[in-house]
Amino acid sequence: MHRLTPSVRRLAAAKCSKTKNSKRCFASASPTSWDADENTSSLTKLFNPTDDHAALREMVRTFTEREVEPQALEYNRSETFNSSLFRKFGSENGGLGILGLTAPDDFGGTGLPDATAVSIVHEELSYSDPALCLSYLAHSILLVNNLAVNANEDQLARFMPGICDGSKIGGMCMSEPNAGTDVLGMKSNAVYDSDRDGFILNGTKMWITNGTMTGKETGDLFLVYARTGTEKRSDITQFVVEGGMEGFNVGQKITDKLGMRASPTAELVFENVFLPAKTHVVGDVNGATLCMMRNLEIERVALAAMAVGIARRSLDEMIAYASDRPAFGKSSLFGFGQIQKHISESYAEYMAGKCYLYAMANGLDLSTYGNGLDADGVKLYCATMTKNVADRAIQVMGGYGYCGEYAVERLWRDAKLLEIGGGTNESHHKNMARDLHKLDGNKLE
Amino acid sequence: MKKILVPIKRVIDYAQKIRVDPTKGPQGVQLKNVKMSMNPFCEIAVEEAIQLKEQNKGAEVVAISVGPKQCTETIRTALAMGADRGIHIETKPDVRGDYIDLQPWAIASLLKGIVDKEDAVDLVLLGKQSIDSDCGQTGPLLAGLLNAPQATFAANIERGDDGSFTVERETDTGTETIKLNASGKPAVITCDLRLNTPRYPTMPNIMKAKKKPVETISLEDMVKELGLDLDEVLTPKNEVVEVYEPPPRKEGETVGSIDELIGKLKEKGLVA
User: Which one of A112, A286, B226, B257 has the lowest number of neighbouring Cβ atoms within 10 Å?
Assistant: First the structure.
């Protein structure tokens, strides 16, 4: 094989973990370039339905290995956001062009309205840095995709290029200090001022990913939900709020989070922020529940995909560790029943989640909604699954699993968020039970 | 500048653990269920070709690969990086490219035929060697067959307005600069590690790559078309006699001090 010259060795030394895992440093390592038999292809096809998907996965995986993995531990430690790495997801300067994955290509997006592609990117990024991926999700799904689906042509022309090319980073504001799962209980409100033909927005939003980069200024662009009517609980409107608008400020950066520490979370405050009605209202006034519904499904799929990526990493780590660790005269831990149980149960659960994810994503049409049952279901299942798999990984790895350098403790902490953010387990229970109740006596397929 | 050809090879992925089946003799290196990728040096060659194309508007980059059906994925990656079209010379699935069946002479002969057929080729960029056979011969052989100017182990390439190429070569003793004069023949340059950092195929380019033309032709048909002899091409010039894994690394000895280290080295006759 090729002799390891100093430069190759340096390239290869991007530290991933102490395990013998591969440190691929050259691109084009294709997960589907198997010299395989026919048997392997049905699952591979499920996870990569077309050549484009396989190529996308390969590209993101390589980028993740080379550039995401080496920085993950450090940014987690310092609770800071790697904005320069994030901008490489944009389309400028030879970036990957995945910020606008689902946005129309005539406005700077990639024009791939495809839940499978979304799943692939989130799975691959989360293998190394779920926190960075969470920021990516808040931006590309909660902001970019929502705009792509709900905005008018003028708004697309105005806002889309900046958030696709990597120059502007943002997210979406829905939750409040006192309203999370009870989303329609929100108190932020926007009152119409006919003199100025605009809305005056007041309120506070909480747990906003990408709310601030540094803790001082707000992010660049946000979709904000606020109450605009008092007749019905659902009289909510979606607005665009730009960083720098008067009255729009950071309340506080949320620190000391259990996990997702490299993803910046903030409380955002709106004091008499003026929003012109012609340009900064997305969709219909009082019609935001439609905007919400169109976006929640893909958000849940993306979160489930993050869970699958975390689980895959946890499995790789525990398998590698168990293979190399001798004990009681046996050459590896694979000779011990409890370890066999940890690993095999993790694998089966991971595969069940992954297959549910891709089977669901492959059929999801992003321009419609009404597929909530399985979007809720896949997130509900995968979030808890990955928490358990990460937990078993720590257990298998013992003392090493407990230390930051070995990755799995960070994955375990990051995984917990998935049972809360983007829909608590309890909210999924509520939604799914309602949908199943509606079957009204009809049996499942 | 009109045309740059970049032959690329699909090999076992750089980071894969190679397994050798001792019962299979020279065919021992396991290829089943093993991850394959574009040869790292070929990737560097593709990147260089794209950069030259960007500097010389109107230049066309053609990616060529000899191998089984799955080579289309490798060519696709080159297209997604920015190559304009591909040529896939498809071999039967049991034909091995890792020196067992196809060897540099055969590849160079095929490439020479393609260069002649393509016409108006300014430059052939190759990786300096492939990481499976590690021969480093295809580039030089091709240059010889074409009677073309060549430079190997390029760490920097500049194109002159007169069509010449100035290449900085890295060797074990230092760097030398060579100028390949414009000669009416394509320059043949092989690429080394420090030449560039290959770009990622961006998402929009991955999607555009689907529309780029890839010509697929079987090895047999290509050989016939080029007027070569199939037996000549397929019969390896060198026979692989044995393939084995390197012996496991023996445990070292720990010593307590520098003096002890020197003592041990002297004992083993490793220092005077």
Answer: B257
B38, B40, B44, B47: CA torsion to nearest 10: 30
Residue carrying the six token digits 């003592």: B263
Span B225-242, average pLDDT: 86
DSSP, collapsed to helix, strand or coil, labels residue A327 as: strand
Q: What crossing angle do the helices spanning A130-137 and A288-324 adopt, rounded to 10°?
A: 170
> Do residues A125 and A60 make contact, with C-beta atoms less than 8 angstroms apart?
yes
- Taking a C-beta distance cutoff of 8 angstroms, is the pair A166, A116 a contact? no
Tell me whether residue B171 is exposed, middle or buried, using C-beta atoms within 10 angstroms of its C-beta: 0 to 12, 13 to 18, 19 or more: exposed
Name residue A222's beta-bridge partners.
A171, A241
Residue-wise pLDDT tens digits, A37-50: 444 478 989 999 98
Distances (CA, A) of A23 to A64, A85, B13, B187, B217: 11, 19, 11, 34, 35
Q: Note every long-range contact of A195-200, with CB atoms under 8 Å and residues 24 or more positions apart, other chains counting.
A: A196/A274, A196/A276, A197/A276, A197/A277, A197/A278, A198/A274, A198/A275, A198/A276, A198/A277, A198/A280, A199/A226, A199/A228, A199/A237, A199/A239, A199/A274, A199/A275, A199/A277, A199/A280, A199/A281, A200/A272, A200/A273, A200/A274, A200/A275
**Surface of B (150-189) touching A: CB under 8 A:** none
Q: Is A34 on the interface with B (CB under 8 A)?
A: yes
Give the type of residue at A55: A
- What ipTM does the predicted assembly reach? 0.78
B35·A31 Cβ contact <8 A: yes
B204 touches chain A (CB under 8 A): yes
B99 to chain A: which residues are within 8 Å by CB?
Answer: none
Q: In the numeric block, which tokens belong to residue B49?
A: 């070709």
All residues at 6 or more sequence positions from A442 whose CB lies less than 8 Å from its CB, including other chains: none
Q: What is the pLDDT of residues A132-180, one digit of tens each?
A: 999 999 999 999 999 998 999 999 999 999 999 999 999 999 999 999 9
Q: What residue type is assigned to position B225 of the chain?
A: E
